[in-house]
Amino acid sequence: MNSTLRTIRGFVATRNRSVLLACASLVLLSACGTTAAVHTAPVKPLVVMPNGAEIVHVAPSKSSTDDSCDPTASLAPPTIMPTPGNMPRGSYMAQILARGILTVGVDDNTYLWGYRDPATDLPKGFDVDMLQQVSQAIFGSPGHIAYVIVPNAERWQYVQSRKVDILAETMTITCDREKHVDFSSVYYEAGQSILVPTNSDITGKQDLAHKRVCAPAKSTSLQNLANLDEHIQLWAAPSNTDCLVMLQQGQVDAISTDDTILQGYAAQDPNTKLVGGTFHDEPYGMAISKLHPDFTRFVNGVLARVTTDGTWNSIYASNIFANTGIPAPALPAARYR
Ligand code: GLU
Questions:
Q1: pLDDT of residue 214
Q2: Which residues contact 272 (CB under 8 A, 6 or more apart)?
Q3: Measured between alpha carbons, how far apart are the two ends of the chain, in Å?
Q4: Does the predicted model carry a pTM greater than 0.70?
Q5: Computed from CA positions of residues 165, 109, 264, 136, in that sequence, does the dihedral angle turn out positive or negative?
Q6: Are 295 and 93 a contacting pair, CB within 8 Å?
Q7: Which 3-state string (H, E, C) describes 36-67?
Q8: Is the CB–ligand 1 distance for residue 221 below 6 Å?
Q9: Would you say 201 and 254 are in contact if contact means Cβ atoms under 8 Å apart?
Q10: Taking a C-beta distance cutoff of 8 angstroms, is the pair 318, 287 a contact?
Q11: Which residues of the chain have pLDDT under 70?
Q12: Would you say 266 and 274 are in contact if contact means Cβ atoms under 8 Å apart?
C-alpha cells in the first residue's frame, strides 16, 4: 500500500472516531434532559479508489494463447561458462563487469517476489534473489547491483530501451512480449488463480461473471479474464498491491492474477483465501534486450546452475515457504531453441 492510501485510510478511521464521539455527546445531552436529536443514520463511507485504478474493457483475444512462437524455448547457454570476474572479451557481460554494476528492474510492492524490505529499505524477494545470482556469476559477489523500480505496465519497455540490463518481475513469457525483448529460460512456473474474502461465495472461475474483478494493468491476467468470460467487470490497477486495497475496501469482489502474487496477498491478509486452483499457465522469464543475446545465453547458464545445485530451492524456501508454508512446485526442464 502506498503512503497516500495509508494516510487516507488513517483519515477514514479518524473521521469515523470523531463522528462516534459526536454521537456520544448527543446521547449524553439527551440523557441530561435536553431536546437534542440523536443522529443514528449511518455515516456514508468515504470511498477512495487506489491511485489510478480504472474499469477497463478488454476485448477477448487469442494473443495470450498465441502459438506463433515457442515462448518458453530460450537461447542455449555457452558450453563452458566463464568464471566470475573473467567475462569474455567483447561480450555484454564484460561491459557490465567493467562498469562495476548490474542494473536490474524489479517491483517494489509485490510481497514475497519484489517488495521494499522495511528494515533495510532495499528490494527483497524471490525475483531479487534470483537477480543477485546473476551479479554473483559476473562479479563473484551478489551485491554489484543498481535496482530500478519498474512499473508493472512498462516492464518490456524498460528492457527494450535498455534502462535496465535485465528485469525479473513476475513476468510471464508470451509471444507478444517476445516481439520486444528476449526471455531467459523459465525460472518459475506460476498459474492464474483467484483471491476472495474468506466469506465470499465465489469458489472458482465459473462464478466470476458479472463480478468486479481486479488485476494488474497490462497483465496477462486481464487478458485471460477477458478471454474467459465477457461478463466479468474488469478493474485494472496500476500496481499489484492496489488490487489488495480494493478488495479490502469492498470495491471489487475478487482479484485474479498469478497464484504467486495472490499467495503474497493472503500472507498479508488472513481475511482472504485462494479459490478454484489455477486456470492458466504463467511461466516466468527474466527479460533482456534483444541486442544482447550473449547475455541471455549467459543468464541461462546461471539459471541452469542455480536450478540444479540447490540454490533455487533455498531461495524458494527463504522467500516463499517460510512465509506461506506452500511447498515448492516442480520447475520444468529448461528448453532451448
Ligand atoms: N505474470 C503476469 C504478467 O506478467 C501477471 C502478473 C503481473 O503482471 O505481475 O502479466
A1: 95
A2: 195, 196, 197, 198, 244, 247, 265, 266
A3: 41
A4: yes
A5: positive
A6: yes
A7: CCCCCCCCCCCCCCCCCCEEECCCCCCHHHCC
A8: yes
A9: no
A10: no
A11: 1-57, 59, 62-67
A12: yes
Q: How far is ligand 1, taken at its centre, from the CA of residue 37, in Å?
A: 54
What does the DSSP 8-state code read for residue 288? E
Question: Rounded to whole angstroms, how far apart are CA atoms 51 and 60?
Answer: 26
Confirm or reject: Cβ of 152 under 6 Å from ligand 1: yes
- Is the minimum distance from the CB of 263 to ligand 1 under 6 angstroms? no
C-alpha cell recorded at residue 139:
562479479
Q: Is 148 exposed, middle or buried (0-12, 13-18, 19+ CB in 10 A)?
A: middle
Residue 73 one-letter amino acid: A
Cα 110 to Cα 77: distance, rounded to the nearest angstrom: 30
Q: Which of 56, 163, 54 is nearest to 106 (CA)?
A: 163
Q: Within 90-173, where are the H helices?
A: 92-99, 126-139, 155-160
Going by the DSSP 8-state scheme, the letter that residue 100 receives in this structure is T
